[in-house]
Amino acid sequence: MSTLASHRKSRTRTALRGNTPAVGFTTAALASVTLLSTQSATAAPAEPKPSVEEVQKKVDDLYRQAGTATQQYNKAKEATDTQRKSVERVLDDVAKSADKVNGARRALGTYAAAQYRAGAVGPTAALMFADSPQSYFEQTQLMDRLTDRQQGAVEDFQKEQRSAAKQRAKATKSLETLTESQASLKVGKQRVQNKLAAARSLLSELTAEEKAVLAELERKKEQEARRKAEAKAKEEAAERKRQEEARQEEQPPAAGGGTDTGTGTGDTDGTYAAKAEKVLAFARAQIGKPYVWGATGPSSYDCSGLTAAAWKEAGVQLPRTTWDQVKVGKRVATADLLPGDLVFFYDDISHVGIYQGDGKMIHAPKPGANVREESIYYMPIYGSVRPA
To answer: What ranges in the chain are assigned the alpha helix state H?
Structure first.
């Protein structure tokens, strides 16, 4: 029985060994199929490459965001520069206070030394060693006066110490504020650089053929903007003519049977026109120079840097940012624009150009572009102002 039992066990083991490779292969195959199926089901599909039109839209949007961030940076930098000057004044006050404290301390030292010398000899001994009673009394009166002066010196020293402490506390607070502003400025600068880097990255991925298509799209966009500008200019000219004719019909005849043909523009035909001529002459001289965010010239500009530099030539100091420039002077309708007026764009007022007539402006457009002449209808207009 034991022999039979042993034989049966041996056959069972042999059978299992004979079947093992088949089972292993089948299991491995099933596992591979399952793994491949799982990978196919979970693998993210490759994102389709964006079209040239999509790239153009994305790049334009990034440049707009960079323009807004640039104005934020300009405003923060302006505030930081003001804070830096304030800190310099405070530190100067601290130095002056320190000089006053040191002067008061020296005065106290002089009186303390005199008091020490006088205190080393008692009144009786001083009288005995004096040349005469009169000399003694004169010295006593002098010491009394020194005591009064010493008290005043102590009060002056304490006053200067308190003033110096206040100045140091003010300086400490100003330095802390300046440090925070500089950190914020650094963040703003990085924000602009990130937007511009993203735009450049999208453009760099285009093939030569796609770049040619993009250039053609930009050309067509510019042509369409020019067409709209010309149509708008004709429409506005016709409207001005109708308004002028209506005014002439309403006005009574002038003396001598003539009619008053004045346009009602006040001194804009004289003083303002003279200023605008200087502004536009300067702006035209900058055509071809590159747009650089945060730049105010003379070799490069951002949009508000160009407008501020141009109007400075006419003796008008404009604020640094578009958000502040739009508040200067008086608002004018698009139909009433005169050469030299500032035209602002987009709802966030992130861009500005200098109107030169016939629906066109001179402006610093965006990174990668140069100062150039362009239609004011190329972008959505927010509003316009006459700075002077």
So the answer is: 2-42, 52-119, 123-129, 133-204, 208-250, 271-285, 303-312, 322-325
Which H or E run contains 343? strand 342-345
pLDDT lower than 50: segments of the chain: 1-41, 120, 124, 127-129, 256-267
Q: How many CA atoms lie within 13 A of 120 on its CB side?
A: 5
Residue pLDDT, tens place only, 304-344: 999 999 999 999 999 999 999 999 999 998 888 999 999 99
**CA 321 centroid distance within chain:** 8
Q: Sheet of 342-345: strands edge to edge? A: 330-332, 381-386, 342-345, 351-357, 360-363, 372-375
Q: Would you say how long the chain is, in residues?
A: 388
Which tokens in the block code for residue 117? 């010398």
Catalytic residue set? 303, 351, 363
Query: Using CA atoms, how far apart are residues 147 and 154, in angstroms rounded to an integer?
Result: 10
Q: Which of 83, 62, 60 is nearest to 379 (CA)?
A: 60
CA 376/CA 356 separation, integer angstroms: 10
Q: Tally the C-alpha atoms within 13 A of residue 206's C-alpha that lie toward its C-beta.
A: 19
pLDDT tens-place string over residues 196-252: 788 778 878 888 888 888 888 888 877 787 777 677 767 877 887 888 888 888 776
What distance in Å separates the CA atoms of residue 335 and residue 246, rounded to the nearest whole number? 16
